[in-house]
Amino acid sequence: MTTKRKRAGSADGAESGHSGHPVTMRDVAEAAGVSVATVSNVVNDKKSARIGADARQRVHDAVSDLGYRPNALAKTLSSGSSKFIGLVADAIATTPFAGQIIHGAQDEAWKHGFVLLVANTEGDPAAEEAAIAMMLEHKVRGVLYSTWFHRAVVPPEALRETDFVLVDCFEANSVAPAVVPDEVQGGYTATKLLLDAGHRRIAFINTTSSSPAQTGRLEGYHRALVEAGIEFDPALVLEAHPDQEGGYAVTAQLLQLNVAGVFCHNDRVAMGLYDGLREHGLTIPRDIAIAGFDNQEVIAAHLRPPLSTVALPHYELGAAGVRVLLGIDSAPTAGPLLVACPPVPRASI
Q: HTH lacI-type domain: from which residue to which, for each copy (predicted)?
C-alpha cells in the first residue's frame, strides 16, 4: 500500500508511524480512500456510525500499515474518561509484603484494558491532595485509596469527585465501597490449623493496639474453639506489643499456662516467641506448636522451623478493588467486601 505522510503538524492527534514521522488521521484517510470523519468513527469505535464493512476494513489496514496511534489525550477529552485507574497509598509501595496490593491492582487493571497510576504519599496530606488532583485532571476511571494496614480512615474529600474504592481500609459509619481482609475468618483459620493437628489447649497472643485485626482475630479464635467443643478461657488470651520484642517478653507468662499450641497475632510476635522458647530449651513443634498471621515471607518462611501462618491477601485486595471499581464485582450495601485470608501450613505445627 502506498502511503503519504504530510501535514505532520495537523491538529487531529497525530502519533509516530513506523518511520518515526507523525502520522495523522488525514494520512490514514487518504491511504484508505475514505473521509477523515470515517477514520475518526472507526478509530473511536463509534457504534452509531453507518460504515460499510469494506471501508471499515480498509481503515484498519491503513492504521496497521502506517502505524497510526490515536491521541489518547484527545480521546480522553472527548469521552470524559480515560483508561487510567488511580491508586493513592500511604506507604504500601515501601512495605514489601503490602506492596502486593499494587501488584494485584495493576494485574487486574491490565486485564481490563486500564493502566494504573500510583502515588505513594507516605501519609502526607498535601501530597495526597496533589496526587488526587492530578488523577482527576487525567480523568481517571476512578481511584483506589489504600493503607498499608487494615484500619478506619476518613477519605479525602476530593475522592467524592470520582468513583473510588477503599482498599485495606474502610470509612466508619459509611456506605463507601471498601475491600478489606476477613480478620474473623483469618483468626478462625489460624486456630483451626492448631485444632486440626490435635491440640486442645491453645493460647492466643493478641496485640495491645486497638484495631480490626485485634478484635477480628480474637473473635475468630473464640469461634473456632466453640465449634470444636472447647470452652473459651480468657486466661489463655495474652497481650503483647505486636513485634518481635513483644513475643519474646510474653514467653515466661505463656509457659505458666501449660498450653500445647499458640496462635500469635502476627509473624513478628511468633518470631519473638521462637527466641523465648529456644532460651527455655523448648522445641517447636514438639513441645509447643505455633501459628502466626500475615505470612511475611521474609520472616515466616525462613524461621527454623518455617512458621505455619495465615496470609493477609494483599494481592487479592488490590485485584478485588479494581473489580469493584469497574463494577465487575459488587460491594455489599452494608459493610466492606471481605477477602479471605488463606492458610499457609509449614512445619511449626
A: 23-79
Q: CA-to-CA distance for 253 and 238, rounded, in angstroms? A: 8
Contact 116, 105 (CB under 8 A): yes
In degrees and rounded to multiples of 5, residue 215 shows phi and psi of -75, -40
All structural domains of the chain: 15-78 (1.10.260.40), 84-181+315-339 (3.40.50.2300), 183-312 (3.40.50.2300)
Mean pLDDT of 177-193: 98
Q: How many helices (H) and strands (E) does the chain have?
A: 13, 14
Burial of 300-339, coded b for 16+ CB within 10 Å and e otherwise, reads beebeebbbbbbbbbbbbbbbbbbbbbeebebeeeebbbb
Read off the amino acid at residue 309.
T
Give the span between the Cα atoms of 265 and 207, in whole angstroms: 6
Q: pLDDT tens for residues 288-311?
A: 999 999 999 889 999 999 999 999
pTM of this prediction exceeds 0.90: no
Tens digits of residue pLDDT in 25-65 = 888 889 999 988 888 788 877 777 888 899 999 989 998 89
- Mapped onto helix, strand or coil, the DSSP state of residue 154 is coil
Backbone torsions φ then ψ of 309, nearest 5 degrees: -155, -175
Residues 6+ positions from 244 with CB-CB distance below 8 Å: 268, 269, 271, 272, 275
